[in-house]
What does this fold into?
Amino acid sequence: MKQQILLRGPILSQSGYGEQARFALRALKSREDIFDIYIAPVNWGQTGWISLDNDERAWIDEKIKKTHTHNQQGGKYDISIQVTIPNEFEKLAQVNIGYTAGIETTKVAPAWIQKSNEMDKIVVVSNHAKEVFKNTSYEAQHPQTGELVKLECTVPIEVVNYPVRHFTSEKIELNLDFDFNYLAISQWGPRKNFDNLIKWFIEENFDQDVGLVLKTSIKNNSRVDREYTEQKLKNILSDHGNIKCKIYLLHGDLTEEQMTGLYNHKQIKCLISTTHGEGYGLPLFEAAYNGLPVVCAGWSGQRDFLYIPQKNGKLKPLFASLEYDIQNVQAGAVWDGVIQADSQWAFPREASFKKRVRELRTEHSRFKRNAVKLKKYLVENFTEEKIYESFSSAVLNIHDSILKDMDLDLEIIE
It folds into this structure.
């Protein structure tokens, strides 16, 4: 009999968690022989919703309608997969799995641990996230007994990375002035360290024939957001007077095919990032499996795919790594119940970033060779077949284990 499985998450949002929810859905869909799939969509902050009209969207809409009818009829679920941050986890089914990007810092909030322990299993997207969950603990006093207790995550945690996805490269017209251009992709927020990326880039390249393409937004892809983002960029540029290098703003919706075209554009030579931390780092991953050299710090989620294992057991970096310092998060980045004030993340060093940006321009062929090697490794080892199977197994293993335990309990009672 098929397992009735409910996927709750921002399945239609244009966000990292939206893509995570869609990955989980594709993995489940690859095993419709064992899963009877239901979908409960939720919003994700102020991000927009995907507007694609394709077979996948039609299938999602069909499942959403089916779920609504099932709920109205009082239907139950065998398994729930909840794609969100842990403080939003709930018991929705017989077996409950929290599927989260985890955290980009060095510790998780107490509320995350408490809510995670209500789940039967946690699935995360990177080894960094798993290690932070496992290594975070708090000592507290029981309010009634006064006894000191240790708060830590006690449920199984499993890592499932993202797969390489293959799309036809669609030509995208950028009207770039120079043949050598850098690319940066992220939402413009404190964690991405975007202001410093732009500032340091200009200071290094103010007299060079190079460009920087910024695929970014503040909150969403609306016209209002574009105007706000453009003004924020102009404010930074105004501090630097006349410069030779060019900065381009790319704002708005791009299809997967257009994004592939962007990564493979003949005038785009590398992806640069000054991020403080990543749960996984999808743009970094996508750039890497498209053969684009990547510049970033070798810390947090991106470590899972920017290094390749050697025969001696060591990991070899195939990207342009930045030197960094691990320091407390900035006050402006603290998010009550999510990002702890006493947690830390990486601060890429200015001098290291400028040096790497310069090296990419003057020694590009060296970095491109490593990028080609990394692409080959990722395409061979991060296949959809392998990763979808890993996710499906992570779901089934905990479900079967719990049912087995329930059977044992019944036998003891009898």
